[in-house]
Amino acid sequence: MDKEYVRLELLKALSSLGPEKIQSLSFSLTNQLIKLFKKFPELSGEIGAAYMPLKAEVAPVYQELLKAVPLCLAYPVMLDGAMGFAIPDGMPRGGIWLSPPFKPVAPHWFLVPGLGFDLSGARLGRGKGFYDRYFQDKKSLKIGLCWSGQMLEKIPVEKHDSHMDMIVTENFCWDVKQQMKF
Questions:
Q1: In terms of Cα–Cα distance, which of 89, 85, 129, 90 is closest to 107?
Q2: Which of 5, 83, 96, 100 is at 20 to 30 A from 52, Cα to Cα?
Q3: What percent of the residues of the chain are helix, what percent strand, and what percent coil, each to the nearest 5?
Q4: pLDDT tens figures, 12-49
Q5: What is the DSSP string of 139-152?
Q6: Among residues of the chain, what percentage have pLDDT more than 90?
Q7: What domains does the chain contain, in order, with CATH numbers?
Q8: Residue 6 belongs to what H/E stretch?
Q9: What residue spans of 40-92 are helical by DSSP H?
């Protein structure tokens, strides 16, 4: 199956969700993330990376997540034409990229958005390759986040595409290596 075709179909499915449904899915996803961080408490002692959601994108409700789990979160920034991560000075502001002022950091683990995922950890992004290039030489824990409607049997991948170690939906957490839900 062609990546562009799959990307367009997943974008259609996402855009068909109304704001109330996105919000509901985001709260449920947040509860699953809380479960993941309780199972792996060592992650809360490290700097993690989050993302600022697009309009029709399921994402953690960060206020709820941070109430339940003490995390230090960095967000994507554009540094010299490449994606990096930084901790905001105050509340995170910006669109896709964090607005200054911020302090660049190297996170230990990542919450990764995507248009689609499969149970082998394959991820289909929006086609710009920022995450794939960033992860090229990094062995950090990558946690893909999505709505269960974005889970496919098989995501078309290429050699340069990065794979996730875990996937979290509104219904479950999936450990790719162990091939099991928790």
A1: 85
A2: 5
A3: 30, 25, 45
A4: 999 999 999 999 999 999 999 999 999 999 999 999 99
A5: --EEEEE--GGGB-
A6: 91
A7: 3-74+111-181 (3.40.50.10420)
A8: helix 3-15
A9: 62-68
